[in-house]
What does this fold into?
Amino acid sequence: EAQLVESGGGLEQPGGSLRLSCAASGFIFSSFEMNWVRQAPGKGLEWVSYISSSGSSIYYSDSVKGRFTISRDNAKNSLYLQMNSLRAEDTAVYYCARVGLIASRPLDCWGQGTLVTVSS
Amino acid sequence: DIQMTQSPSSLSASVGDRVTITCRASQNINIYLNWYQQKPGKAPKVLIYGASTLESRVPSRFSGSGSGTDFTLTINSLQPEDFATYYCQQGYTTPYSFGQGTKLEIK
It folds into this structure.
C-alpha cells in the first residue's frame, strides 16, 4: 500500500528556515510526480509546489516563489521542501501528495501532514 | 492563473438527501478536474478524477459531471460519513489551484 510520511515541521521564528521531508513507501517513487499542499488553520487547501518524477520540472505558487525549494531524492524515496524567509502566513499543515498517473493529475495519495508554525 | 470557485461555501442537509456542489473554472480546463473529501484533522482523499471518474472504493452515490468551465459533484442519499468538506481542484496547468471548499453539515 502506498504511504507518505511527512516530518520536519515545528515552531520557527519569522525569517527562519525549516526543511520538510516526505518519506514514500509502497510504490515506485521515481515514477510519480509529487506536490506539496498546505492548509492554514481553519482554511482551505493551497497548492504550494510541484516536481516531476525526475526532478527536472519544478513549479511554485507565487506566495512561496523565491523562498521555498522543492527537491527529491529518488534513491532515498524522499521528497523535500526547504522553506526559507518564513512568514507568519506560512503557518499551516503541510502535506506531500502523489500525483496519479492520470491526465487530470489527481492527488491520489497524501501524507498525514506536518504542522509548521511561524511565530515569535 | 486559473481561479476555481465553488458554491455554496457551506450546505446543511439531512441523511438521505441529495446534494449538489458546483465548481467553476475561470478558463477552459477540459475535464482536468478532481474532487476531494476532507474530514476534520485528516488529509484529503480523492473522490473523483477527470471530472466524472470515480476513484476506486468510493461509493457509487458520489458522481461528477461537467467539462470546460462548469462542474458538479452530486451525492445521492447522504450518509452520516459524508458530512465533510469538499474541494475541487484543476489539474490542467500550474498552479494546480483548489476551490475554496464546501462544508457539508448535518441539518
